[in-house]
What does this fold into?
Amino acid sequence: MKHSRLVFGFFAVLGIVFLTLCLVGIYLNAIDAISVFAALPSEFVLWFLSIGILFLTVGIVGTGRQHLKSRKRLFTALAAVLVPVLTFVAMFFALTIIVVNTLFIFPMRSEITQVTVVDTNPLVLSVDVKALTSRDSIIYGANVMNSNDVIVAEIFEREYIVSKNWRGLATAILPSGSEITLTLDFNTTLPSGDYLVRLYAWEANHGISPFTLP
It folds into this structure.
């Protein structure tokens, strides 16, 4: 009897752990694509959720039956229905909260590792970019800001790009875990001084790095 309680208690705890990891993974994936879920099929999340609900249900049913002397069948039937339903409803509300709280979060998708001034008349930069997340990201354009954070040059050189997860007009696709070099022709001439080059995208942030024009 004692061992049975421990086993069912272990199942209940394991179910809670599975459900918690599921929520944490989805949250991390929502804010920065660093969850293991980003590299796995979407069906995996449903399997993870189902296993967590199954373990929790078995644990609660088994633990509850240990403390009942009568109406065990009724308890088992009710628990087998109510625990999954209530757990699913609770997970749904938790996921809704995650979606609402991450709706306006624009995470960093890349960093600029090096900027080389190729030409100054007009300004041409060679920019090395390194991906920071496990999701392919899109770079739509770039701009240059002066020391007062005023945009003094901008570029929208786009072409139709087809990738595994996206297709459309973009400056470049940055595959997950990769490093690429962009040649940016701003078609303008700027005076000597210190500047910042920034890459950007919709609902995401890319690298920003200083450079100096002699």
In short: The chain has two domains: 2-102, 110-213. Residues 2-32 form the longest helix (31 residues). The mean pLDDT is 82.
